[in-house]
């Protein structure tokens, strides 16, 4: 049996295709009697509108692109969930691609999505992205784009972030309040804004509490991995004065914690360890890891809402003022840190 079409329904009822289409869409200028006849045949034939053809007529694809740096990251998996659930409510399909923190892969994926005529883009910058021509070109083409989490201040568009500097400040302050005097910081390369801001928050907390900054106990991880954390733990153990560690991510912090335990260090009695993100694994380490909770689900929802706002503004030729939305964070205190006095 051939697939039912608007034309076949129109011929069967001796109506025009336009009238059938309007009846299905419940237009007020079509009589209730005609609507009932059309809907009865639609139900009988199990007719489903051709969404692709409709979208072509409306000059939209009803597809958006979402690029995440790491698909295995618990935070980014929550971003995906937040975006896809919000997008589904508005009838959008989401194509999710992973940049693997690669500038080249990020550019390739953006080109691929533009070729697919997506209605808009959501992007968290890869750690290796230090040039932004590929993004400014997309903005110049009029394609709606929203940056989330890892952003750049170099160009104007909607952005959804957390206050990384404030969150890092609070994490470091907690370590100080619990009695730590020599706090090491473990960070990634100073390229994405998130790394910079967390480092600055750490430094500001030391300064405000009259603790001298010591660059010799700031450790850089190139791969930002669990194994990197374990290797850095060995170097931390060699410095007898370090009594606290604030790590850029939970993955590093977990490696540091496990590495220190294997080195015979008592956590948190001798060294307190604080992470960042609140991955699932933070509850599974022994002892469990204190961290900063950042809500990926809410960030994903807000990012889509801003993108949808821009898509609608483009369709209606409405001028938008770009804004930055800040998602709140909170400390999650577990057993890897001492309690404040």
Topology of helices and strands:
Blueprint: H1 6-13, H2 17-24, H3 32-45, H4 51-57, E1 63-68, H5 74-89, E2 93-98, H6 103-115, E3 120-123, H7 133-140, E4 145-148, E5 158-161, H8 164-177, E6 183-187, H9 193-208, E7 218-220, H10 226-238, E8 244-247, H11 250-262, E9 272-274, E10 291-294, H12 296-315, E11 324-326, E12 329-332
Q: What do these coordinates show?
A:
- With 341 residues, the protein is an alpha/beta fold.
- The chain has three domains: 6-49, 434 Repressor (Amino-terminal Domain), CATH 1.10.260.40; 61-162 and 296-328, Rossmann fold (3-Layer(aba) Sandwich); 164-294, Rossmann fold (3-Layer(aba) Sandwich), CATH 3.40.50.
- The protein is 44% helix and 15% strand.
- It has helices spanning 6-13, 17-24, 32-45, 51-57, 74-89, 103-115, 133-140, 164-177, 193-208, 226-238, 250-262, 296-315, and strands at residues 63-68, 93-98, 120-123, 145-148, 158-161, 183-187, 218-220, 244-247, 272-274, 291-294, 324-326, 329-332.
- The strands form three sheets. A six-stranded parallel sheet has the order 2-1-3-4-5-11, with helices on both faces. Strands 7-6-8-9 form a four-stranded parallel sheet, with helices on both faces.
- Strand 6 (183-187), helix 9 and strand 7 form a beta-alpha-beta unit.
- The model has no long low-confidence stretch (mean pLDDT 92).
